[in-house]
Amino acid sequence: MYNDASFLKAMKKxxxxxxxxxxxxxxxFHFDALNRVHGxxxxxxxxxxxxxxxxxxxARKRELHSCxxxxxxxxxxxxxxxxxxxxxxxxxxxxxxxxxxxxxxEKPFTGYFGDGSDSFNGDIxxxxxxxxxxxxxxRRILAAEKKSRGKILYAENWVYAPSIQKEREILEKTGxxxxxxHGEESHSGSHSAAYGKWRLSGGGSLMGKGCHPLTxxxxxxxxxxxxRDGRPIRPVSVSTRTHAITRTPGFRDDGHIRxxxxxxxxxxxxxxxxxxxxLAAIFASELVLGGVHNWLEVNANNHRAICNINPNTAMQTYxxxxxxxxxxxxAEKIGTKQGWAPTSPDEDWFTGYQHEMEAFYRNVAYxxxxxxxxxxxxxxxxxxxxxxxxxEKCGAEVRIPSISQ
Length: 405
Ligand SMILES: NC(=O)c1ccc[n+]([C@@H]2O[C@H](COP(=O)([O-])OP(=O)(O)OC[C@H]3O[C@@H](n4cnc5c(N)ncnc54)[C@H](O)[C@@H]3O)[C@@H](O)[C@H]2O)c1
Prior knowledge:
The chain is an alpha/beta fold.
């Protein structure tokens, strides 16, 4: 994808200024990925997050400028990284687009977060309201993008994960038709304090985790359609079930799984039907021990591919004494480092973090086509909220509203 010789020869490295919104987990891996961008020169203009102490600590550790306001950060940057909770994505993205900046929006793109009150309860509101609200939010962001000289770069790292990009190559070169896919993102619970409250995260496992394999699947059907017929194959309907297992009276908490969610689901399965009648079945949960479980299997009419993002067998370690690996990173949310482990020699590489950043900065600098764009982001959110409506109807099929762009 990146080593086209004539492209590289013709390319004169441009310098771009990056501004990071947020100083938590995602801000950290964006910072690390920015340090691995080679196609352009990246200068980090600064970081903004509302809590001064945390923002300053993040900035000090990385020798960055700590901005007192978001406006200061946006004005001093060419590209804004939205690494703040989902409830903030729309406002931050629109502010940056209005100032003609490019915006890297972390997943999930946007959503429905209730009436803005602290007492909003995600368990009891009508899901049609959420679907309508999420579609309106998408439309507002797309309208801002249309008017802007900047564009949206949707930070769905699964699109750029090397295994998914290899599958893109296979589809493009063989003209294969994907008949069905299944995939999953699960682990034992998010670290983020904002996650678990609908008013901040806009949903539970389907929104926070399911969006990854779902968007990977939507992307591959786009690739298939573009390669064969010059137009993407879009999703048309979903059937979904969601459950809150850790909040059922019968759940027995043994301390290994996070269990303090207030009003979100911790298990979801979504069945997606595409316009050509083919399928994707996606699972997402907070109920899986042993590290992050991220995979997507593609069953095509001419090949089969299993994309193991985490864990994979690139490396395995056996450690007889837990304390020996005290200072050694093994794999995300692994739980224990003792015994056999799927130790990742470079986890960010397998997850696609550095590849998405490389691609985005080339998109901005050299105006190349965006793989994970606002259309893919919009399809993903529309499918998720159609999914929540379906879950309210105990899995009945719901059509995904179309969003004209
Ligand atoms: N692609 C991935 O693999 C991945 C992994 C984790 C998180 N994420 C996404 O990244 C985003 C941030 O999640 P996180 O895990 O870093 O959360 P976090 O809680 O670790 O950090 C969130 C940061 O946003 C800041 N913030 C809160 N309100 C803000 C506002 N109004 N304006 C600006 N900043 C504000 C907080 O101060 C904090 O620094 C979420 O959308 C999440 O879904 C993506």
